[in-house]
From TrEMBL:
InterPro entries assigned: 4pyrrol_Mease (IPR000878), 4pyrrol_Methylase_sf (IPR035996), 4pyrrole_Mease_sub1 (IPR014777), 4pyrrole_Mease_sub2 (IPR014776), CobA/CysG_C (IPR006366), NAD(P)-bd_dom_sf (IPR036291), Siro_Cobalamin_biosynth (IPR050161), Sirohaem_synth (IPR012409)
Pfam families: NAD_binding_7 (PF13241), TP_methylase (PF00590)
Source organism of this protein record: Blastococcus deserti
UniProt name for this protein: Uroporphyrinogen-III C-methyltransferase
An annotated Gene Ontology molecular function: uroporphyrin-III C-methyltransferase activity
């Protein structure tokens, strides 16, 4: 139920922010429009009462924990008693008109979802960027307001609109560190909070697997430090990274440690967090979309599937089976019936495949290797455990790559590289 734009001559809007903490708000109606309104009201920590014979499942789920009160009947005169604000969001214009009339009599501001011209208040299109709240009135046209709201929030998130107050010069404020998971590589897959942190940074310490295109939009005065760890190649020592985070934060800078995937999935994020805590530096963790799940999904491979597998395990393959420093119980992994996802396991793939087969996994178990996940050069090679060693060589597979073992590989997702003929792998 979307109300048409209000007439321009219905009066200018006086923008104001309602502080509804612990104040009673009544929402009449229990459908999708009411659902959206309740979400914002609960965020403002209002005491919300919903009056409706039926509500959406999401609203019903809020009743038992006490997040809202549900009056399970149609609206009756007197339901607005004691309210500071009201929302009329039923599918019946007559009911909405009655709610608005009672609100007018009680001098309670009321938003009618079906008729903006008859509302005493217009709800703006609201967006949030950290502690900033952006509210846009579109002259009675909600779609216009939404478009402007989205543009402003996007600009704040990407840094094209500068929040100067939030960028207080370093040295005049306390420094901090944010450990940001950047996702599998596509900059569109970083979280909103992650983009906000990058946009507000004074220093970015970035890995080569992080979405580096985000760095292009940063102001020239933001220092970018390359902390890449190349497979079997150059890398910055973890102790040096920890020291850099602490050093810049102590100088009053906002430091972002930008990683690929999630900071706590083989990302040494906890080591960096512990270093900051030990140094007394405020630190925040922003989880990221881990490549262990996202990259297979982008290749059309779910790590679980109803009736097929009830488990999946993510394993680091940077050390081969039998290595004295390896903490992986490959025999136990092989006995699992579900999905095995291997990260950092290109060079060790032949040894891992052999260990899985030796400990009970069938040689013909399907395997998919996805390289450069989420980027323009993403590629999927499908084979079997027996065929994996040859496929790595013949297909020129190089890091970064994620490989998946299990029946889920055989599901009907996109197959951009046909599986090899097993008869040719002998």
């Amino acid at each position: 139920m979307d109300a048409p734009p209000a007439e321009a001559g219905s009066g200018a809007v006086y923008p104001v922010g309602l502080r509804l903490l612990d104040r009673r708000v009544v929402v009449v109606g229990g459908g999708q429009v009411a659902h959206r309104r309740v979400a914002g009201l609960l965020e403002a920590r209002a005491r919300v009462t919903v009056v409706s014979p039926e509500v959406t499942p999401a609203l019903e789920a809020l009743v038992e924990p006490g997040s809202l009160t549900w009056v399970r009947r149609r609206y009756e005169t007197g339901d607005l008693a004691g309210a500071w604000y009201a929302v009329a969001a039923t599918d019946d214009p007559a009911v909405n008109a009655s709610v608005a009339a009672e609100a007018e009599q009680l001098r309670i501001f009321c938003a009618r979802a079906d008729d903006r011209a008859a509302s005493s208040v217009w709800t703006p299109a609201v967006g949030r960027h950290g502690e900033l709240v952006v509210g846009v009135h579109g002259g009675g046209d909600p779609q216009r307001a939404i478009g402007v709201r989205d543009a402003v929030v996007t600009g704040l998130t990407e840094g094209s609109i500068t929040d100067r107050a939030s960028r207080t010069p370093a040295g005049t404020r306390a420094g901090s560190v944010v450990l940001v998971g950047g996702g599998p590589g596509d900059p569109g897959l970083i979280t909103v909070r992650g983009r906000q942190a990058v946009a507000q940074a004074d220093v970015v310490v970035a890995d080569h697997l992080a979405p580096l295109s985000l760095l292009e939009s940063l102001p020239a005065d933001v220092e970018v430090i390359d902390a890449s760890k190349l497979p079997r190649g150059r890398s910055m020592a973890q102790e040096q990274i920890n020291a850099l985070l602490v050093e810049h934060a102590r100088a009053g800078r906002r430091v972002v440690r930008l990683k690929g995937g999630d900071p706590f999935v083989f990302g040494r994020g906890m080591e960096e967090l512990e270093a900051c805590v030990a140094a007394g530096v405020p630190v925040e963790v922003v989880p990221g979309v881990t490549s262990a799940i996202a990259v297979p999904a982008l290749a059309g491979i779910p790590v679980t599937h109803r009736g097929l597998t009830h488990e999946f395990v993510v394993v680091s393959g940077h050390l081969p089976p039998g290595h004295p420093q390896s903490l992986v119980d490959w025999a136990a992994i092989a006995r699992l019936r579900g999905t095995v996802v291997v990260l950092m396991g290109v060079d060790t793939a032949p040894a891992i495949a052999a260990a899985l087969v030796d400990h009970g996994r069938a040689p013909e178990t399907p395997v998919a290797v996805v390289t450069d996940g989420s980027t323009a050069t993403q590629r999927t090679v499908r084979t079997t455990l027996a065929g994996l060693p040859r496929a790595v060589v013949d297909e020129g597979i190089r890091p970064p790559a994620v490989w998946v073992v299990g029946a889920v590989v055989g599901l009907n997702g996109p197959h951009d590289v046909p599986p090899p003929d097993d008869s040719d792998l002998d």
